[in-house]
Design goal:
The chain is mostly helical and 190 residues long. The chain folds into two domains: 55 residues, Homeodomain-like (Arc Repressor Mutant, subunit A, Orthogonal Bundle), CATH 1.10.10.60; 113 residues, no CATH class. Helices cover 73% and strands 0% of the residues. The protein is built from ten helices and no strands. It is elongated. It starts with 8 loop residues before the first helix and ends in a 5-residue tail after the last helix. The model has no long low-confidence stretch (mean pLDDT 90).
């Protein structure tokens, strides 16, 4: 391995810190997670966390980088949009705990709430915009889609409401898909 292709030790340290932070924020939430606990989980000195990220807020912002991996909605049959979007969100919620950690933190922390708004504004809004809707209508529809999906995430993955946790993936898609479908393709209310 040449010097240029060998992973740098600092890259491995950063990755270990971010992995530990994501797990700790998901388990404890933003308020209860500590730099000391994250450092212990990463098996490094807390000073190293501070060296790389400065403070807990900056560490959280770095750990909360999240790609929703929304498909190109113009490539989906129009009648399947709602079900597809719900399925994608279920995949993302269940793939890792970052989105759950962010949602937990967003409830009480303004920085986390802003990060969540940013994710939806920069990822969901543009995906819906490609459907060719007017910009103001796109923002409204994206906001409504966000309320449903974040509500699902809160109920199923944060609050763990038993009836919602008990639903199968197919049941969630069947229940929520038509609502998201209406937000994406239904006539705008005047």
């Amino acid at each position: 391995m040449t010097e240029a292709t060998r992973p740098r030790r600092s890259d491995a340290t950063r990755a270990a810190i971010l992995d530990a932070a994501r797990e700790r924020f998901a388990a404890d939430g933003y308020e209860r997670a500590t730099i000391r606990a994250i450092a212990a989980d990463a098996q490094i000195d807390p000073a190293m966390v501070m060296r790389y990220y400065g403070n807990k807020e900056k560490l959280f912002a770095a750990a909360a980088e999240f790609n929703l991996r929304l498909p190109d909605l113009t490539a989906i049959p129009r009648t399947r949009l709602g079900r597809t979007v719900v399925g994608v969100f279920l995949d993302r919620w269940e793939a890792d705990e970052t989105l759950t950690a962010l949602l937990r933190a967003a409830i009480t922390n303004p920085t986390a709430a802003e990060r969540m708004r940013d994710i939806f504004a920069t990822q969901v809004g543009p995906a819906i915009a490609r459907l060719g809707l007017p910009p103001a209508e796109t923002r409204q529809r994206a906001g409504l889609v966000g309320t449903q999906l974040l509500g699902l995430g809160l109920g199923r993955y944060v609050l763990k409401l038993p009836p919602v946790v008990a639903l199968s993936r197919a049941e969630i898609v069947a229940w929520l898909g038509p609502t998201i479908q209406r937000y994406l393709t239904g006539a705008a209310l005047r």
